[in-house]
Design a protein that fits this description.
With about 120 residues, this protein is mainly beta. The protein has strands at about 1-5, 10, 15-25, 35-40, 45-50, 55-60, 65-70, 75-80, 90-100, 100-105, 110-115. Strands 2, 4, 5, 6, 9, 10 and 11 form a 7-stranded mixed β-sheet that branches. Strands 1-3-8-7 form a 4-stranded antiparallel β-sheet, with no helix packed on it. Strand 5 and strand 6 form a beta hairpin. The radius of gyration is 13 Å and the shape is globular.
């Protein structure tokens, strides 16, 4: 099981980025995928999640209305479109899934938003 996040970078406040999580080793459409982030000196927090079946989604209040999660099962990819970025969105972003009671994390991607 592997997950690899990509798409981070440096962007000015108000800008946009699109993160991608490429997965392998399991059937994407059978599992929910979550995005988390961790800012320096802070605990990792959940940002968004998309379910495995009916594509129901969850967003943290801090990103609701600005971020959109989506999945492409044919490409084994889950994306996180991030708009209206703010400096407080600066963090390392990780994608995650849970298989057999175990959490799997991809290597994160750094998002830096300058004011």
């Amino acid at each position: 099981v592997q997950l690899q996040a990509s798409g981070g970078g440096l962007v000015q406040a108000g800008g946009s980025l699109r993160l991608s999580c490429a997965v392998s080793g399991f059937t994407l459409d059978d599992y929910a995928i979550g995005w988390f982030r961790q800012a320096p000196g802070k605990e990792r927090e959940g940002v968004s999640c998309i379910s495995s079946t009916v594509d129901s989604t969850y967003y943290a209040d801090s990103v609701k209305g600005r971020f959109t999660i989506s999945r492409d099962n044919a490409k084994n990819t889950v994306s996180l479109q991030m708009n209206s970025l703010a400096p407080e969105d600066t963090a390392v972003y990780y994608c995650n899934t849970r298989l057999g009671g175990r959490d799997y994390w991809g290597r994160g991607t750094q998002v830096t938003v300058s004011s």
